[in-house]
Amino acid sequence: MEGYSTIILLVLMIGIFYFMLIRPENKKKKEVEAMRNAVAVGDEITTIGGIHGVICHIKDDQIVIETGADRVRIEFQRWAISTNDTAAARSAEAEKEAKALREAEAREKRLAKQKKKEDK
């Protein structure tokens, strides 16, 4: 009976380890890979080395970016992309628009309730 409790405890610890550490890391890797595959010409990116630029050409696993006002072009591997600043700005803008839409709908509901009360 004592051996079963040890096995159950070990399985429980492995399960906790999986759900607390391994699963979130795999999810984050998938999101980063999807972001890297979704970049397009014209997107502003930051590389893992901290270089900011605009994508001007995409090959299979390579990207070419323009940096600065002098339009220097640098070629990188796709895995070197750290963040897609254009997509982040788009998602922040979309979030603001969604919030404004929710507020407008709430305002309309309040006005409809007030009008209903006045009609009674």
What does this structure look like?
- The protein has 120 residues and is an alpha+beta fold.
- The protein has a domain at 1-37.
- Helix content is 59%, strand content 22%.
- It is built from 2 helices and 5 strands, in the order H-E-E-E-E-E-H.
- The protein has helices at 2-37, 85-119; strands spanning 44-47, 52-58, 62-67, 72-77, 81-84.
- Strands 4-3-2-1-5 form a 5-stranded antiparallel sheet.
- The longest helix is centred in the first third of the chain and has 36 residues, at 2-37.
- The mean pLDDT is 88.
Defining traits:
flat; alpha+beta; 120 residues; 5 strands; single chain; 5-stranded antiparallel sheet
